[in-house]
Design goal:
By secondary structure, the chain is mainly α. It contains 3 helices and no strands. The chain has a domain at 2-37 and 49-77. It has helices at residues 2-22, 27-34, 50-76.
Length: 123
């Protein structure tokens, strides 16, 4: 489903680019408007042409596929590349504890709790 929507999205985007590029630009009309043309500068151009309707339909389809891809990608969840990485041995197991997969001896790897005793004080 996701792949089909991606392929449709790419086809619609390429089609939209093509349709926009083959249309005549409004920039030429703006230059003619200052020379006394009877068309308005930013007003309507009359009835919409077939290419304008096709552009609108392609733009709506592009937005719908974009929204669909966003929704589908959230529902798919994320797959981490770290899921295939093996987990290292934890701090509780030590290679010095007498072999592989042997629990560490008591006192190894433990953190001393509380304040450290002063090093220069003699008893």
């Amino acid at each position: 489903m996701y792949t089909a929507v991606v392929v449709l999205h790419i086809i619609v985007s390429l089609f939209l680019i093509f349709i926009i590029l083959i249309q005549s630009s409004k920039g030429a009309e703006m230059g003619a408007a200052f020379g006394g043309s009877n068309q308005t500068l930013f007003g309507s151009r009359g009835a919409a042409t077939f290419l304008n309707k096709l552009t609108t339909a392609a733009a709506v389809l592009f937005m719908l596929t974009s929204l669909s891809l966003a929704i589908i990608s959230v529902k798919r969840g994320s797959v981490s590349v770290m899921s295939s990485v093996p987990v290292r041995e934890s701090a509780e197991r030590s290679p010095r504890a007498g072999g592989k997969n042997q629990p560490a001896a008591p006192g190894q790897g433990e953190v001393q709790k509380g304040p450290a005793p002063p090093a220069d004080k003699k008893q």
